[in-house]
């Protein structure tokens, strides 16, 4: 049987050619950055024709939920706190049909307006990706969430709303001794949000990203159609939506793979002074059959009193040696490892960890260990967030840069960036760790470097008061990108952000044609996710 895209082309050839021409011609044509000013001033973009009639038109819809047309500044703000685009309305859906009806209505209005739609979860985007200038933002957390259905048989899974938070899924599935196998470092995000990107954390070397741990989706396409899809049913849409940056549909429900969950974790940190030794040990661990359950790493540049700061959460293996270690003026690399366990098997666990550590070449005096609950470890970033909020430091710009670097060029990257372009990490942590792509499904929309082992490198900067300003951090980010391009490292952005069609075409490479075909099939007028700036909303030709 042919794919849905092929069927669409056969049945609607004339319409397709018309839509395709509109879509390609309306791709974003220049490098104008409308996110440079973190205020709520509206960008210099012409208003929609007949824009005054749009709210009245939306008010005619019969919905289970409702629209709001005033006090919308919250929908023009995200975690990045750099881009601020005011929508014309926010939909608070109670049902999936609310989302479908709204999209169909906007399609019907497409001859007179360039109205677009953005699905918003917790607003954790970095560059306005979940915003819609003079469009409609859908508050996915308003969607009624039926009780999670948990199947705890031979192939366990959980059925959840696309607006559900991963932290809630964790707590609910643990009641059955189960949990999702792949996570992000921060769990207070919606299912639809992370699955539209990838969802990567320290478990990805073993289980792949979150998009590799999904059995089925319910999606509302850019045509307003509600479609159930999986690898066996509507597979083209299924794989397109996973990692598809919201371009082909809004995820309203997901069936997520589960596995057994232990109660505790052994949490370990060690330091390295040489990058090659650090990366070799990381690659060794992710390639071992009996390894840790979570593996990440950090770069520490000129951090004073580093090990003393760890003592609040970790215990040194050798307190005397640890107290004599100095991190001042050095570039150090931290390997962070976790092993899950149940208390009755602590003796076996300690033997396994001792063997694994004996195979590594870290600085002996820097071995620190801790034991915490499984939930406390997985929700660790939220605890830091609470502290920042209490100090009024959460609502600042976060100009993050996330890169995927092929293994063969990671040493070149480290040598060119750490200590040269980036001279300290006072603005926030720098994550670096490898994943094995053998565990990943290459049919999804996510784009990665070609090699089997790739490194995630994440510069998680915050423009905090008293530190380098936003402009300095963004300039530094651009210098890193320029270095990658000049050195031809083959790097790809994770959570990508570009301004021109040429940049997006280069990002997707050989996948670009498939991406455009899927857009034409499932969202032919480019209504969905305008904040990604991949395609621009087209006016239909009747």
Automatic annotation (TrEMBL):
InterPro entries: Cytok_DH_C_sf, Cytokinin_DH_FAD/cytokin-bd, FAD-bd_PCMH, FAD-bd_PCMH-like_sf, FAD-bd_PCMH_sub1, FAD-bd_PCMH_sub2, FAD-linked_Oxase-like_C, FAD-linked_Oxidoreductases_BP. Its EC number is 1.5.99.12. Residues 83-261 form the FAD-binding PCMH-type domain. One of its GO terms (biological process) is cytokinin metabolic process. One of its GO terms (molecular function) is FAD binding. It catalyses: N(6)-dimethylallyladenine + A + H2O = 3-methyl-2-butenal + adenine + AH2. Keywords: FAD, Flavoprotein, Glycoprotein, Oxidoreductase, Signal. Gene3D superfamilies: 3.30.465.10, FAD-linked oxidases, C-terminal domain (3.40.462.10), Uridine Diphospho-n-acetylenolpyruvylglucosamine Reductase, domain 2 (3.30.43.10). Residues 1-34 form the signal peptide. This is cytokinin dehydrogenase. The lineage of its organism: Eukaryota, Viridiplantae, Streptophyta, Embryophyta, Tracheophyta.
């Amino acid at each position: 049987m042919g794919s849905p895209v092929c069927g669409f082309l056969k049945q609607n050839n004339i319409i397709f050619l018309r839509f395709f021409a509109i879509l390609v011609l309306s791709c974003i044509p220049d490098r104008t950055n409308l996110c440079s000013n973190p205020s709520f001033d509206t960008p210099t973009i012409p208003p929609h024709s007949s824009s005054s009639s749009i709210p009245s038109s939306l008010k005619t819809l019969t919905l289970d939920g409702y629209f709001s047309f005033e006090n919308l500044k919250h929908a023009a703000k995200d975690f990045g706190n750099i881009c601020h685009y005011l929508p014309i309305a926010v939909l608070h859906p109670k049902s999936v049909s609310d989302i479908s009806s709204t999209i169909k209505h906007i399609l019907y209005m497409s001859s007179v307006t360039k109205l677009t739609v953005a699905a918003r979860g917790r607003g954790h985007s970095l560059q306005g990706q979940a915003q819609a200038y003079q469009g409609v933002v859908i508050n996915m957390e308003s969607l009624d969430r039926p009780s999670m259905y948990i199947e705890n048989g031979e192939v366990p899974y959980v059925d959840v709303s696309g607006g559900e938070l991963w932290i809630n899924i964790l707590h609910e599935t643990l009641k059955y001794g189960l949990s999702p196998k792949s996570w992000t470092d921060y769990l207070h995000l919606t299912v639809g949000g992370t699955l539209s990107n990838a969802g990567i954390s320290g478990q990805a070397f073993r289980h792949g990203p979150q998009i590799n741990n999904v059995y089925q989706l319910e999606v509302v396409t850019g045509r307003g159609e509600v479609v159930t899809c999986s690898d066996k049913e509507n597979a083209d849409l299924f794989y397109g939506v996973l990692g598809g940056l919201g371009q082909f549909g809004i995820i309203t429900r997901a069936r997520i793979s589960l596995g057994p969950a232990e109660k505790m974790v052994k949490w370990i940190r060690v330091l390295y002074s040489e990058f090659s030794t650090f990366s070799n040990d990381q690659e060794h661990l992710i390639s071992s059959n009996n390894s840790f359950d979570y593996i990440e790493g950090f770069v520490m540049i000129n951090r004073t009193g580093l090990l003393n700061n760890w003592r609040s959460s970790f215990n040194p293996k050798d307190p005397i040696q640890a107290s004599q270690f100095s991190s001042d003026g050095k570039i150090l690399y931290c390997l962070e490892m976790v092993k899950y366990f149940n208390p009755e098997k602590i003796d076996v666990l300690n033997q396994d960890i001792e063997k694994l550590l004996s195979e590594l070449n870290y600085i002996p005096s820097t071995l620190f260990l801790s034991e915490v609950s499984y939930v406390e470890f997985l929700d660790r970033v939220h605890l830091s967030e609470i502290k920042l909020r209490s100090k009024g430091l959460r609502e600042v710009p976060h100009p993050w840069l996330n890169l995927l670097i092929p293994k063969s060029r990671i040493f070149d990257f480290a040598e060119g960036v750490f200590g040269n372009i980036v001279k300290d990490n006072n603005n926030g942590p720098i994550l670096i760790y490898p994943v094995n792509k053998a565990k990943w499904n290459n049919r999804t929309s996510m784009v990665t470097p070609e090699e089997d082992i790739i490194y995630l490198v994440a510069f998680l900067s915050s423009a905090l008061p008293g530190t380098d300003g936003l402009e300095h951090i963004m300039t530094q980010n651009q210098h890193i990108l320029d270095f990658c391009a000049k050195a031809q490292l083959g790097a790809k952005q994770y959570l990508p952000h570009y301004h021109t069609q040429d940049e997006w075409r280069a990002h997707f490479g050989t996948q670009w044609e498939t991406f455009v075909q899927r857009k034409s099939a499932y969202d032919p007028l480019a209504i969905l996710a305008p904040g990604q700036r991949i395609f621009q909303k087209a006016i239909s030709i009747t």
